[in-house]
Amino acid sequence: MKKWIPIATGLAAGFVAATIAFANVSPSLTTQASNSNTKSDAEKVYVPYGQKDEYYLFDSGGHSGQLFVYGVPSMREIRTIPVFSPDPATGYGFDTASKKMLGGYTWGDLHHPAISETNGNYNGKYLFATDVGNSRAAVVNLSSFTTKDIINVPNTSGPHCAAFVTQNTEYLFLPTRFAVPLGQEYQPLDQYSTKYRGVMSALTFNESKEKLNIAYQVALPPWSYDLSDAGKKSSGDWAVLTSYNTEEATTTLEINASQADRDYIVLFNWKELAQMVKDGKYEEVNGQKMIFPEKEKGGIYLVPVAKSPHGVDVTPDGKYFIASGKLAPMMTVFSFEKAFKAIENKDFAGERNGIPILKYKSVVEREVNPENALGPLHTQFDDKGYAYTTMFISSEIVKWNYKTGEVLDRVPVQYAPGHSVAAEGDTASPQGKYLVSLNKMSKDNFLSVGPSHPETMQLIDISGKKMRVIDTVPANPEPHYAQMIRADKIHTINVYPKDPSNPDAVYKQTDTRIVRKGNEVHVYGTAVRSRFTFDHTAKRPDSIEVNQGDHVFIHLTNIDFDEDITHGFAINSYNLNMEVQPGQTNTLDFIADKAGTYPLYCTNFCSALHQEMTGYLLVKPKN
Ligand code: CUK
Ligand code: CUA
Fold first, then answer.
1. 63 within ligand 1 shell (Cβ under 6 A)
2. What angle do CA 616, 97, 475 make, to 5 degrees?
3. Pair (321, 420) in one structural domain
4. Whose CA is nearest to atom 6 of ligand 1?
5. CA–CA distance from 449 to each of 334, 442, 476 (Å)?
6. DSSP letter assigned to residue 511
7. 529 and 413 share a domain?
8. Residues 600, 601, 605, CA angle at the centre, nearest 5°?
9. What CATH number does the domain containing 596 carry?
10. Predominant location of this chain (predicted)?
11. pLDDT of amino acid 35
12. Is residue 130 part of a domain?
């Protein structure tokens, strides 16, 4: 995204004009100083000790592959949830189950968190996310703030345009940023227009098993798909996604993907697509059901939109969708109702790749073009029917009325906001009150840490007529999108309940044992303040002896059923580490390929005698 900064040349005149204007309207640090926070702002963000924040903010960690959890309005970071990347602090990616989930990948690129919904509102149960880096999708359980499932999505590359869920979490759609040949087989780039495809995957979530599944896929034209949103209420069966590079350029996209005056919004009816699959109107591609719109008509339409749009957002009433043109300084409001009418009347202006194109004039409601506002990217909503759009280039938030097009207020932010997030601001019932601007640059807002500066989040009070920035905090890379949910909608568990059906669990020290099956050694142990017990009958119950080459499984149960008493388990010099939360059973498995004596210890400071919570792994050499 940083490439939009006005060093690029040779683009369309409008963009050059835009880039020049950037210098004029970008707030300098002096203006910012005049905006600096006051005592009354500080009071608004101050949450006294003993009190809790009103909202949870789930902030994407971008290419850290993680999710960061903050409290709003205090803007205190409460938790890091590892999703697509290993995390030594929690042993995520080290224990057997999470290692298997990560599938050997050591990073991910998480852009858009999506909380599960009921009737278009967050229900606080799960959070979905996709990985642009390695084409995966994940689900996080919000009762334990842990990742439960990760699925690899074949035939696709970089599901950036995701995750977004339909209003009752029926589907989670994953359109891709990169076009590739189906199955990612080798095809020369000269064959791009015929052999490459953008693919949208429809995923379902099985809540009782906490598993993601791929229901079907759609082979879209070889364009880049940027962002998407699901319809609500009267548009609840529909969804929209933006595209760019409909020029089908294969090199120097910076210039070549910005040639055409118009790209398209893809509008589709997911119920019709599901019916097509039911009717067998698909082809099997690498084990997936793939709909080819050029062969099977229906369900998908194109709406022309100002060049290279970035975000598209459905209004809370479900009546409109708003596209933001990162290169055309304009928000375009489209009407679902008009689109449905045009589809019914077959009011088309030709087709591309077999997909009918609706006429711009038949679907557009209005164009909104605030003076000197440049680089509109993403829009959020409040409880009063107002929209808030981030302006990447002119570094501001614009508040406007999407029903009239009237611009109501503008506030500078520091600097270059990507998304913003309002309290439940993308649901059917936005809360108003707070908006957080997720800024790509902080410049000199904080103590210097060298050439690379942190990103920032700015908390904006949107309860009044005028927006007011009331707090600025540094943010971990990289806040793309976030969702803010009322804290009382999240119901966490205090401890993991006993699970007698789990064959790996041991709840009494007298049940601990070490079982050998050929080369496999299974340790059924407990952790309790402040000792490990692996075999209560052994002379030293807190040590484990195996033979070099054994495949060792440590099944460890934390039998401290007290909130907040987490134990860690690490084996010195074996690069192994996991955690067991209160009541939890977790397994670590490894090949004991190095002979020798290796201390094992608890990594979480769990009691006054935590330092005593140690033992030995003895690996007897072969022969
Ligand atoms: S993107 Cu980063 S600012 Cu991935 Cu939603 Cu627009
Ligand atoms: Cu258990 Cu420290």
1. no
2. 95
3. yes
4. 418
5. 44, 12, 13
6. G
7. no
8. 170
9. 2.60.40.420
10. periplasm
11. 60
12. yes
Ligand 1 and 227: CB distance under 6 A: yes
For the chain, what is the domain count? 2
Residue 34 burial by CB count (10 A; 0-12/13-18/19+): exposed, middle or buried?
A: exposed
Per residue, the 3-state secondary structure of 375-433, as one string, reads: CEEEEEECCCCEEEEEECCCCEEEEEECCCCCEEEEEECCCCEEEEEEECCCCCCCCEE
Would you say residue 502 lies in a domain? no
Digit-coded pLDDT (tens) for 379-390: 999 999 999 999
Mean pLDDT across 311-322: 98
Last residue of a domain, one of 433, 460, 489: 489
- CA 207 to ligand 2 center in whole angstroms: 33
Tell me which long-range contacts 272-280 makes (C-beta under 8 A, separation of at least 24). Answer: 272/237, 272/298, 272/299, 273/202, 273/216, 273/218, 273/299, 273/300, 274/202, 274/215, 274/216, 277/215, 277/216
d(CA 605, CA 159): 39
Question: In angstroms, how far is the first alpha carbon of the chain from the final one?
Answer: 59
Please report whether residue 335 resides in a domain.
Answer: yes
Last residue of a domain, one of 461, 489, 517: 489
| Position in ligand 1 atom list of the atom nearest CA 112 | 5
- Average of per-residue pLDDT values in the chain: 93
Cα of 342 to ligand 1 centre, how many Å?
31
Q: For 227-282, write each residue's pLDDT tens digit.
A: 999 999 999 999 999 999 999 999 988 888 888 888 999 999 999 999 999 999 99
Same domain, 117 and 197: yes
The residue nearest atom 1 of ligand 2, judged by CA position, is 567
Q: Based on the domain organization, do 516 and 484 belong to the same domain?
A: no
Q: What is the CA radius of gyration of the chain?
A: 26
- Indicate whether 59 and 188 sit together in one domain: yes
Digit-coded pLDDT (tens) for 16-46: 334 433 434 444 444 444 467 888 999 999 9
Strands (DSSP E) contained in 231-385 are: 238-244, 262-269, 283-285, 288-291, 300-306, 309-314, 320-325, 330-335, 348-352, 355-358, 364-368, 376-381
Residues 519, 465, single domain; the answer is: no
Residues 439 and 581 in one domain: no
313 occurs within a structural domain: yes
| Centroid of ligand 1 to alpha carbon of 478 (angstroms) | 10
User: Ligand 2 atom closest to Cα of 601?
Assistant: 2
Whether 436 contacts 412, CB under 8 Å: no
CA neighbor of 303 nearest in space, from 340, 265, 276, 342: 265
Q: Domain with 197 in it: what CATH number? A: 2.130.10.10
Same domain, 228 and 305: yes
Note down the domain range covering 296.
Answer: 7-373+384-489
Atom of ligand 2 nearest to the CA of 568: 1
- In this structure, what token pair is assigned to residue 278? 């039911």
Distance CA(56)–CA(71), nearest Å, equals 5
Q: How far is the CA of 550 from the centre of ligand 2 (A)?
A: 26
